[in-house]
Amino acid sequence: MKNILNKIKTGGMVFINSRPIGFNLLIITFLSLLLIGNLKATAQTQIIADFSKRTGPPLIKTKFNVYQTPLAPLQRMLNDQHLLKEAGIRSLRFETAWGKSIDFNAPSITGTYPDFKYNRTGYTQFIKGLEAQLVYPLLTLTYTPDPLKPGKDWRDKPLSLEGYEKVTRDFASYWKSQQIMPIDYEVWNEPDFKVFFSGGKTDYFDIYKAGAQGIKAGNKDAKVGGPVTAFNGWYKDFLSFVKNNNLPLDFLSGHAYSNAGGQLQAMKSALGTFDWPGVETYLTEYASYKSVPGTDIREGGASERYIAAADFFKDAKMFLGHTELTKVYWAQWSDVELLSKEGNWYYQPKTDKMGLIDLSGKPKALYNGFKIYNLMPVDRNETIINNPNVDALASSDAHNAGFVVWNLSDSATTITTALKKLPFKNGSVKIYRIDATHSSYFENKNNYNLIPLETKKLSADQFSWTGNLPAKAVVFIRLKDNSGQSDLKTNLVAKDIHTYHWFWDRGNTNYADFDRQTWIARLGMGSSKDTATAQIGVELTDVPQKLRIVAKTSGTPHIINDKSVLGYRLDFMDTNGNYVKSVLFHGTVYHNYHEKLSWGKKNIADINLAIRVNDHTLNLKKLTPANFNGKILLTFILQNTGKNSSVTFKVYKASDIKLLGPLLN
Question: Is the pTM for the entire model greater than 0.85?
Answer without folding.
Answer: yes
